[in-house]
Amino acid sequence: MSSNLATKVFVARLLGLDVFDPLGDRLGRLRDVVVINRGTTKPAQVVGLLVEVPGKRRVFVPVTRVQAIESGQIICSGLVNLRRFQQRGAERLAVGELFDQRVTFKDGSGPGIIEDIGLDQQRNGDWHVSAYYVRRGGRDTGFRPFRRLARGERIVVDWHEILHVDDSEPQAATQFVAAHDELKPADFAEALHEMPDKRRLEVAAELQDDRLAVVLQELPEEEQVQILSALDMERAADVLEEMDPDDAADLLNELTDEQQEALLQLMEPDDADDVRRLLEYEEDTAGSLMTPVPVILPPEATVAEALAYVRQEELSPATASAVYVCRPPLETPTGRYLGVVHLQALLRTPPPESLGSIIDTDLEPLNDMSPVEEVARALATYNLTSAPVVNTQGRLVGSVTVDDVLDHLLPDDWRTHDDDPKAV
């Protein structure tokens, strides 16, 4: 169906490529292509690239600055404004919005799904969307007088051979999720944050529960609420179970009491109990910040056992930095809190040694009602990444980590705050 394929550059093959200036200095990495739809009589025009520069900021590079798209790299010229990219008017993101869009062939041969987009540079230097790589599929109710294409077949078609469906129709996000699978949760959240509301919800719905949970934790609160509210109640409860209890409690605090209780009732009882305990604390106290499930072991446990616990992949580095030693029961609130064993002490001690012989008893635990300022001061004074939190009976109820404190001390909009625009 298409012609002149040898001159085409496909977007999916460009993603992740390094972007350099003419002197060879690396600007960042390509994350998307920005295009403008010009109606049914003209191909969409490429207006720029979305480049992730150091600091995880995504900035706009006009296509007029692109000197060359070569094997393994993209070379640009001139100054690049480092202001965070903000989508305007008719601008569309190729990967973020056009990939996975449902289309219909003009010849009546049925619907399909866009999996990639082909770009061509014109003689005047402009770049146009010249072709689409389409997978056969989707709801098909129309008459097909021409060649029948097998469901699942993939073909390249010229831009004028397809009709885009109405943007109001639900759009899958399979291709976007697959293309960004390697991104860390914070970086994936950044990409979600920059999307229009509709597309953000479509991509979030495509993620597995555990992936969505860690990505949600990196988003501004209003977007967390937006995404959670768009899920059915059963799935929303499943996602909350996958989140760290303190982050789940923070999110539930943004909902009404009725919504909170409905979701807690749908969660597994043990997970719900952890979150309920955190919801009882006043905001900006150690109890409201802490995780109720740190690493807890009895004094008879060995160093080898402790190291096995802190090696668990699901533990954050801050949580894995300390083992809290308590009398049974070992679930929070525990029996009497005895002290802490830091990760460095574990690494320096023979594996058969018991934890009771290397406990640090000099570190005073925080009270669960201590204000966040006192928590921050304690972490800074003793150069800690985590600290124990006890109740008035001296029982361990959780641990507070430095990342928990930073989240509460930084401005509410720190994830989306822009510095003064600069250029490189």
TrEMBL record:
InterPro entries: CBS_dom, CBS_dom_sf, Mg_transptr_MgtE_intracell_dom, MgtE_N_sf, MgtE_transporter, SH3_actinomycetes
SMART domains: CBS, MgtE_N
GO cellular component, one term: membrane
GO molecular function, one term: magnesium ion transmembrane transporter activity
UniProt KW keywords: CBS domain
SUPFAM superfamilies reported for this sequence: CBS-domain pair, MgtE N-terminal domain-like
Superkingdom of the organism of origin: Bacteria
Keyword Transcription attached: no
The CBS domain, residue ranges: 290-357, 359-416
UniProt name for this protein: Mg/Co/Ni transporter MgtE
Source species of the chain: Zhihengliuella halotolerans
